[in-house]
Amino acid sequence: MGGTDRDAEFAEYYAVRAPTLRRLAFGLCGNWHTADDLVQTTFVRLYRGWEGIRAESVDAYARRVLINQFLSRRRWWRESVTAHPPDTVHPTDDIARVPERMALHQALATLGPRQRAAVVLRYLEDLPVADVATLLGVTEGTVKSQTARAVQALRAALDGTTLIANGERKG
Amino acid sequence: MDESQIRTALDGYTADPPTVLPDSAAVLAVARRARRNRTALTAGAGAVATLIAVAAGLAVTPGRPGTPATKLSPALIISCAGQRPGTPVQPNQPIPDDLATWGKSTVTCHLKAALPTLLPGATFEQVQGAPAGPLIGFILQRPPRSQRVETSPGLSANSPDVRPLNHRVDAVSVIRDSQGAGDLWLMIGITAPHEKDRAIEQCRATAARCTVQSGPNGATALTLTSTPDQTGSYYQNSVQVFRGNTAIWIAATNTDRKTRTGSGLSAPTRPTPILTTDQLLELALAPDLLLYP
């Protein structure tokens, strides 16, 4: 495969998948700038091994790279999810949605990185427990217990009305 | 709270990002460069010194805090308004059109996101005579003196208002909350040579009212605390921050600039300025407002 074909394929994949990966990254870190960094680093790594990645596994590979980036940043750079990052509220926000966004942001910030990854992969990405376990390199039982604890923590941190209001709006 | 509610909440939480991702060409360029660097790394011991030099060069390239080296290229600086154009700029020269558009959009979207968080419940109104609405970035094009927005006093001789007008982005707003109204004035320009040193010198000469402090990522912040205006009309807090090639000046007062005293001066319409110096500093140090790295 020539460089031009390779680059065209890569660019096409970026255009299609980057927004989704960005949402996943934001769910993990809670900061859009950091999310953008995670996504770009992920694509830089994808490009490095692009020829060797099978088409059917590229999505899973991209997710794995992104998750690993997130977890390693948390581990080595001691980055932390702040309770009030500057981009918690942004220009496209409907003012009525700000409180629920803030509440969820703060609730997620109370979770450990692996707990947060588990709950985001499970409920935002809608991945089966087995896939989450593979991505995080843990057993399915561990995913189930981490997810359960995360949901419990979210439930404790959020007052019910926030999510009920959100559910009603969506519905 | 059941699983479907968690899904719905996460879906809403991650929707509508405030910034635009760099386009595929930009990411492809970074990826190619990173790949070349990695290839060089494995080429042999002789390449190590070269790579260290490259890495060092990337490491000192201005960028947002916490970004990896491959992200530090100026071509990939993004704000809430999207990717920054790479057009070069010079001190005391008009801002190139593409950078001006990006700068104005960046200031607008950042302030519109940040101010409601800093001042929950506050409302924003256009300053009388201002060329743009509240919190909207604009560039003054040397208007006749009679049409200029009233200048805030504060950093006196050091005020950025004495610099050329069309090399900087401004934003102004009257802000009203339960305690009354005050105004906000933001100016972001390119630093001139020795400007920071002169500002620090003048700040230190202003005695206790002005303090110099170091901020993150090599920023220097000058803070002028609230004091009564000499005429007894209103109060003002202001900060001036130097970061990279960017000079940011923000001031907040306790006047709406419409209400006048008996002697015709702007009258206080609030007990204290609408923003504290800490809040102004938080605004000035925001990564998005680093228009000139």
Keywords:
heterodimer, A: 171 residues, mainly alpha, 8 helices, 72% helix, globular, disordered C terminus, B: 293 residues, alpha+beta, seven-stranded antiparallel beta sheet, two-stranded antiparallel ribbon, 6 helices, 9 strands, 29% helix
Overall description:
The complex is a heterodimer of chains A (171) and B (293). Chain A is an all-alpha fold. In chain A, 72% of the residues lie in helices and 0% in strands. The C terminus of chain A is likely disordered. Chain B has one domain. The longest helix of chain B has 22 residues. Chain B starts with a helix and ends in a 9-residue tail after the last helix. About 17% of the residues of chain B have low confidence. Chains A and B meet through helix 1, helix 2, helix 4, helix 5 and helix 7 of A and helix 1, helix 2 and helix 4 of B.
List the secondary-structure elements of chain B in sequence, H or E.
HHHEEHEEEHEEEEH
Query: Count the helices of chain A. How many?
Result: 8
Cα-atom radius of gyration of chain A: 17 Å
**Which residue ranges of chain A are poorly predicted, with pLDDT under 50 across at least 5 consecutive positions?**
75-94, 161-171
What integer value in Å does the Rg of chain B equal?
A: 22 Å
Please count the beta strands of chain A (DSSP E, at least 2 residues each).
Answer: 0
What is the mean pLDDT of chain B?
A: 74
String of helices and strands of chain A: HHHHHHHH
| Number of strand elements of chain B | 9
